[in-house]
Amino acid sequence: MVWNQLQRHLSKSEPRTKKELVQAIKAFWKDHMTVEQCKLYIDHLYKVALICIKIMDVQPVTP
Asked: Molecular function terms in GO for this entry (predicted)?
């Protein structure tokens, strides 16, 4: 998810040098990977994990 987003961003940025690559990566983390975006990914993973547990009939570990 996150790495796919980064890959697409870098593909659009088309960095030609190491410096441009580093700048594009920093821009991605600063401008595109917001707190809200992270929350959406975390919520999605939680939902998917519960579905996987049901499918595999595994008892979840509770803290």
From this structure: nucleic acid binding
